[in-house]
UniProtKB/TrEMBL annotation:
Gene3D superfamilies: Aromatic compound dioxygenase (2.60.130.10). Keywords: Dioxygenase, Oxidoreductase. Residues 77-105 form the Intradiol ring-cleavage dioxygenases domain. PANTHER family: DIOXYGENASE, PUTATIVE (AFU_ORTHOLOGUE AFUA_2G02910)-RELATED, INTRADIOL RING-CLEAVAGE DIOXYGENASES DOMAIN-CONTAINING PROTEIN. The lineage of its organism: Bacteria, Pseudomonadati, Pseudomonadota, Alphaproteobacteria, Hyphomicrobiales. This is Protocatechuate 3,4-dioxygenase, beta subunit. The keyword Coiled coil does not apply. Belongs to the intradiol ring-cleavage dioxygenase family. It comes from the Bacteria. It comes from Bartonella choladocola.
Length: 239
């Protein structure tokens, strides 16, 4: 691919105001947006280092285990962080958080009746290598109900945060699992107008990367911008 500029497609991201996703009513802007250039402190301020990651940070099966392995299906999630021309982006800090196999988050405000797993914390992090590659090991999360409509459920998903080279360069998205019928019933997913944009949030089952007798593998590439961009929920309307 060449390096030509690709115009941002503002229909790729959902509108900020989507009443069927109730929280968006209060969170969406009421006034026209202002464009603010980056400040010097944003561009030069403190960023994460490359030597602060612990050995188990990308292993959610072991990073919180107290008495044994967490309950649930063991999986590997891997892929690349790519720019608009398909080149890998090295040095990107990825953080991820998720519910346990029963759909329960380890959070004091979480009230879903599914049990907490004493051996599962549900968060981790890693940094992309020189080719933009990342991987982590975890338990496949369960679906969970949430107070939006009368009976709304989130499909199984993993939240992702990506940090670039400056602290202000943060992007947030969610990854879903291929073949899950709950994806297409989710009020948050339904705010995304283009089915192809939804498709880019769905990790593909990759039998070639499966670890025999151990873990299934899901492949999830994240594209920062351009025609194949991932939908980022903190960049609504492509802003
Ligand atoms: Fe969630």
């Amino acid at each position: 691919m060449n390096g030509r500029f690709i115009q941002r497609d503002r229909n790729w991201h959902p509108p900020a105001y989507t009443p069927q996703y109730k929280t968006s009513v209060l969170r969406s802007p009421r006034n026209a947006l202002l464009s603010l250039g980056p400040t010097i402190s944003e561009m030069t301020g403190p960023v994460f280092g490359h030597d602060i990651l612990g050995e188990l940070d990308n292993d959610l099966i072991r990073n919180y285990a107290k008495t044994g392995s967490p309950i649930g299906q063991r999986i590997v999630v891997y892929g690349r962080v790519l720019d608009e021309n398909g080149n890998g982006v090295p040095g990107t800090l990825l953080e991820f958080w998720q519910a346990n196999a029963g759909g329960r988050y380890r959070h004091k405000k979480e009230t879903y009746l599914a049990e907490i797993d004493p051996n599962f914390g549900g968060c981790g992090r890693t940094i992309t290598d020189e080719n933009g590659f990342y991987m982590f090991r975890t338990i496949k999360p369960g679906a969970y109900p949430w107070p939006n409509g009368v009976n709304d459920w989130r499909p199984a998903h993993i939240h992702f945060s990506l940090f670039g080279h400056a602290f202000a360069q943060r992007l947030i998205t969610q990854m879903y699992f291929e073949g899950d019928p709950m994806i297409w019933q989710c009020p948050i997913v339904k705010t995304i107008p283009d089915p192809e944009a939804i498709g880019r949030l769905i990790a593909k089952l990759d039998r070639n990367a499966t670890i025999p007798m151990d873990a299934l593998a899901y492949k999830f590439d994240i594209v920062l911008r351009g025609r194949r961009s991932t939908m980022f929920e903190n960049r609504m309307e492509g802003n």
